From TrEMBL:
UniProt xrefs under InterPro entries: HTH-type_Bedaq_tolerance, HTH_MarR-typ, WH-like_DNA-bd_sf, WH_DNA-bd_sf
Nucleotidyltransferase as UniProt keyword: no
Protein's recorded name: DNA-binding MarR family transcriptional regulator
Organism domain of life: Bacteria
């Protein structure tokens, strides 16, 4: 719209948010290229990590939290189940529903993938001095609160 002007602070915040988005995307892309997630599709990796944290969890909740569509969540869980990483069982709250839990192999995969991702991220963070690393970890905690409801 002609004549519409945003305050300088809003423009500056938008530029900083865009830079944060680009930087976070580059880190995620780097981790995806590393050996941490190359054995499975990123959606499968995210679902597996979510299942590890929230098990037992229904497929609908996986779809909402990954986020992806219900059919994608169903296909993702089926692939993880076929790989022996998860199994379906009766939901402890509602026995008519199905919940997803990790198998022993799934737990081992989560452990190994988490360790590898942490090692890769540590390599990136080693480039920073101690005070900057502390700021990154503080920002991570804040971003976790922001994204908890997404």
């Amino acid at each position: 719209m002609p004549g519409l002007r945003f305050p300088t602070e809003v423009i500056s915040m938008a530029q900083e948010a865009l830079q944060l988005l680009v930087s976070m995307h580059r880190i995620v892309r780097h981790l995806r290229r590393s050996r941490t997630t190359t054995l499975m599709h990123p959606t499968q990796f995210l679902a597996l990590m979510l299942i590890a944290d929230e098990q037992p969890i229904r497929i609908g909740e996986i779809a909402a939290r990954v986020p992806c569509s219900q059919p994608t969540a169903t296909t993702t869980v089926a692939a993880l189940e076929e790989a022996g990483l998860v199994r379906r069982e009766a939901d402890p709250v509602d026995g008519r529903a199905t919940a997803v839990v990790l198998t022993e192999a799934g737990a081992a995969t989560v452990e190994a993938s988490g360790r590898q991702a942490a090692e890769e991220l540590a390599k990136l963070l080693d480039r920073l001095d101690e005070s900057d690393r502390t700021l990154v970890f503080q920002a991570g905690a804040i971003l976790a609160r922001v994204t908890d409801d997404l």
